[in-house]
Amino acid sequence: MTDSDRDLLSVLRNPEYTGENRCVPCTILNVLIAAAASALVGIVSRRGGVLTFAGSLAAIALRGYLVPGTPTLTKRYLPERILAAFDKHPLEERQREEPGQSTEGEPEIIDEFERQQESAVDPERFLLEVGAVEPCKTQDDLCFTDELADTIDDRVAGLPEEPLDRALVADLYGIEPESVTVEDRSYPAVKIGRRIHKWPSEAAFAADIATHQALSELTERWTDVPQAQRIELLEVLRSFHDSCPTCGGPITMSEDTIESCCRSYEVLALNCEGCSAPLLEIDPNEIGGADGGVEP
C-alpha cells in the first residue's frame, strides 16, 4: 500500500465510530441492512449484488455505519440488555493496564493471580492497622494520618521535574529499571513485559509514586501486599489527597458523563482545580459503604 493510499484511507475513515469507538450492535445492524440491500440487487444482477455487499462492508469498516444516523438510533432504541452484552464500561477501557497480543505464559499468570488472591489484605483494616489512615476529624470518613500526609507531601516535593522515571516505576512494581519502557503518549504510560500501565495524568502518577514511597517508609508490611492490590489501593488513595500533587491547588469532585461505544455513563470525577489534571474517575454504582471507598 502506497503513502497516497494510506492518506486516502485516513481521510475516509471516521474515528468517531471505528476502532475502539465502534458500536458492535450498530455494526451488526448495518451489516444486516447491507445483506438485505445486496440480496435485492442480486435478484437483478448477481455480480451487482456481490459488488454492493463488498462496497457496503468497506463503508462500514471505514465509517462505522452504512446508513447515516444508525449509531445514534441504535444507542437510543435498542434494549439495554442488548447494548450491555456488547458494551464495555469506559472506566474499564481507561484502566491502568492494557493487555498485549501474546498469550505466552498464561498458566504462569493464572498461578500468580491465584497466589496474589490468597495473600490479599482487607484494605481498610490494613491501612488502619499500619497507621496510614484514621477517622477524619471533620466528617464521617477516613483520611490520611497527619504523619503519612506530611511524608507524602515531602515525597511529592522530591519528585523530579519529569516524574515518569524508569527507576521510580521499577520501584513501584518491584522490578528492575531495565524492564520498564516509557511509552510516547499524551499521558503517563509505560510498558512492562507485554502490558501497558497508564495513568490519567502526571498528577495521578505523582500521587501514586509519593504514596507508595510514604507507605514503604511507614511499614514493611506494605511490600507484603500483593503487587496488583497495592496498585489498586494507590489508585483509590488518590481520593485521600487534600491538594493536587503537581499544581498544589484544591481537588474537586464533579459528576461527568462519559461515552462508551454504545451507551452513556455517569461517573464521579476527581480533578485538580488549578491545572484541570484528572486524578480519578469512580463509578458511583460501585462505591461501597461510607468508609471512603477503600475497597479496590
UniProtKB/TrEMBL annotation:
Residues 10-89, 122-239, 242-281 form the DUF8054 domain. InterPro entries: DUF8054_C (IPR058675), DUF8054_M (IPR058775), DUF8054_N (IPR058674). This is Uncharacterized protein. It comes from Natronococcus pandeyae.
